[in-house]
Write a structure and sequence with these properties.
By secondary structure, the protein is mainly beta. It has 4 helices and 26 strands. Helices cover 7% and strands 43% of the residues.
Length: 387
């Protein structure tokens, strides 16, 4: 068994308070050979609405990730070599949750901080704002605007020198919810993959409903006119009446288009022999792509969010596996998409990102998806929910 080194960035805990404003760990600090390219920096941001936000910059091999502990361990963006994965939101700051009012604008305040490559939605609810059984639900739940605690970097001392960044995010409210989400992000120097393993713990004695959507967002340079999306599934349907007009081009990416607004599509994805579903978005030349893979058993549905508006407005596509689609929770019970977690139990979600930068790896990913798609996918003109 490989030995490990642990480096704890505990911002607050039940037994102590450690206010780390900065740290810089090199491979030597981690006990690794000098030729292993692993480095970790912690910063506390200053000025504007990012005042007090924590930012971890983690380099492992040819990959660099920027992770935001103050925003539920979100991945702000990632690079592999010269290629950046993420998108350019009009929101430029790493906004601290204290500056977010989720109830603003009819429950759309979540958007005031939205600029990440990976944003978690949930876990009491996810999806569009609105009332459900007398409760006002804001957009995409509370977790993304909750700071993490017990942030720990774990570095294996032997090949493949796996690096794991862990955190704990609490979602608790007296009389309502007693959730803890234990996040785990891991990668190695030699692989093009980022692995996320999140475990939702219901510490209550009572059963509770939950929802989760992994809002994974990608813009230029992968997103461009002629870029294509590849998903194996049984059915794709429009989210609403507006999306019907784009149904037959749901997997084709246009250039930035003024007035496009957003089109959303619901996909019932197929899984491979290992229980994983896959989506691939590749650029027009086919030499750069993002592969998103996820555990179908706990994230059974996929939302595709095409927001191919102007660059200034936010030119981006979301590839979003979840327990549920993006409808308000009240619309999803009849779809069987409001699952229950039993008291004193847990659910685990696996998501993997392939940062693919060569034709061979991209062609192999597309061939894998085509092999899963044994029969043509059904295009349904009917939204699952009449809004």
């Amino acid at each position: 068994m490989s030995t490990t080194s642990e480096f704890r960035f505990t911002f607050t805990s039940h037994t102590q308070h450690t206010d780390l404003s900065s740290a810089h760990l090199t491979a030597e600090d981690m006990g690794l050979p000098a030729d292993i390219n692993i480095e970790c920096k912690l910063q506390t941001l200053r000025g504007g609405k990012q005042q007090g936000s924590k930012l971890i910059t983690l380099t492992v091999g040819d990959k660099t990730l920027r992770v935001v502990p103050t925003r539920a361990m979100a991945i702000l963006d990632a690079t592999r070599g010269e290629l950046r994965y993420g998108w350019d939101s009009p929101v430029k700051e790493v906004v601290h949750p204290s500056f977010i009012n989720q109830e603003a604008s009819g429950g759309l305040g979540w958007l005031d901080g939205f600029n990440e490559m990976v944003a978690r939605c949930g876990y009491q609810w996810a999806g569009h704002p609105g009332e459900d059984n007398g409760e006002m639900l804001t957009l995409h739940g509370r977790i993304q605007n909750t700071p993490a605690d017990d942030v720990v970097l774990i570095v294996e001392q032997e090949p493949p020198y796996r690096v794991t960044l862990k955190g704990r995010v609490d979602e608790k409210r007296f009389k309502f919810t007693n959730f803890e989400v234990h996040t785990e992000l891991s990668l190695t120097p030699d692989e093009p993959y980022i692995h996320i393993k999140d475990t939702l713990h219901n510490l209550s004695n009572y059963d509770n409903t939950y929802q989760a959507i992994y809002h994974n967002n990608f813009g230029s340079p992968i997103l461009e006119q002629g870029a294509t999306l590849h998903v194996a599934g049984t059915q794709v349907s429009p989210f609403n009446e507006y999306a019907i007009q784009g149904l037959h081009e749901w997997d084709q990416m246009p250039a930035p288009t003024e007035g496009f607004d957003e089109m959303v599509f619901n996909v019932l994805a197929l899984e491979d022999e290992d229980g994983m579903s896959h989506a691939l978005m590749k650029n027009a030349a086919g030499d750069a792509a993002i592969e998103v893979s996820w555990s179908n058993s706990t994230l059974p549905v996929l939302t595709i969010w095409k927001n191919t508006d102007t660059v200034e407005q936010g030119y981006v596509v979301g590839i979003e596996p979840g327990t549920s689609f993006a409808y308000n929770r009240k619309h999803q019970r009849d779809l069987g998409l409001v699952p229950t977690i039993k008291g004193k139990s847990s659910k685990t979600f696996h998501v993997r990102f392939g940062l693919l930068t060569d034709n061979e790896a991209i062609d192999a990913s597309q061939a894998k998806i085509e092999a899963i798609q044994r029969t043509p996918m059904l295009l349904s003109n009917n939204p699952l929910v009449q809004l």
